[in-house]
Specification:
With 321 residues, the protein is mostly helical. Helix content is 69%, strand content 0%. It binds ligand AR6 and magnesium ion (MG).
Length: 321
Amino acid sequence: MMEEERLRDRFRGAMLGVAVGDALGAPFEGMGMVNHAGLERLEAEPGPLRYTDDTHMTLGMAESLLERRGFDGEHMAMTFARNYRQEPWRGYGAGPPQVFRLLAQGITWDQAGSTLFGGTGSFGNGAAMRVTPAALVYYRHPQSVVSVAAQSALITHSHELGIEGAILQACAIAYLVQWDPGTPFNPAALLRLLEGVAPSPEFRRKLKRMVTLLPRAPLGEVTKEMGNGIAAHEAVPAALYAFLRNPNSFSKAVLYAISLGGDTDTIASMAGALSGAYLGESAIPLLWREEVESASRLRELADQLLELALEIDSQEEEHNL
Ligand code: AR6
Ligand code: MG
């Protein structure tokens, strides 16, 4: 296993990456493609780095996993709902608040989400954008990463594409957080692994296409092929592409994600999680990781998630003896 100090840097990188990408991308949400000068300014003068619902829900997921020492659907749903009631102004999509109202009426955590959007469930990117803590806690247990990503998605995003988006983002983070930096990284191997966990044609087509768009397809072609919208099957591939195209630089990955336009906070947040998991906190520009809202809380939660991950590992080892 990778030594603890390096893992700590990666766990912190993933959690801070979520918030930094979210906060940097938020002012550009819904704009077309973002111009170069606007992006350059973000490096020196990022402005107040305030996060949105993406990070708010990520915090909720971390809090629930830590309190219950693992996944508890009812508890996680109630934690999301409680946090929403405390700070409803974070920029939530239309779906989650409806789920929280249904939960308050006594509908169970695994049923409420399936009533949304005429009974099809949400395919928004909301389940993927918050999944980092689950990926970290179960990083050495791929089956648990898949099942906890799927079950946590079900709370608000029961459409198969909403669920698959969460599974893909979680599997990518779990893979990257344990990648040995001494070994050359092969994007094609990660993409093949991801194809195996995303059966829907929407995701498979984009994962296949992604290899051919690396390393320097023009922006317009990337947004056309991957999408840049609020749907999971657009934002998740867009974020993964932004990372894979810039694997060795956190700031390049996140700024590239924002340059795609559309749902910039969520695409940059998910690209930030991937890059932070791979490169660690130390690769995030100091200004960003110090100035982002709740930086010390995110770091503290990352450390506690690592403790929990190691606890789960030792339980598994005992179980296997
Ligand atoms: N049919 C039609 N439209 C849909 C469907 C569906 N089955 N599912 C989703 N949409 P939502 P989220 C559309 O509301 O995923 C914040 O800005 C619909 O327009 O479940 O948590 C974050 O920063 C719906 O409102 O919320 C993220 O960018 C929208 O997709 C984003 O919102 C989003 O799905 C996260 O939103
Ligand atoms: Mg947001």
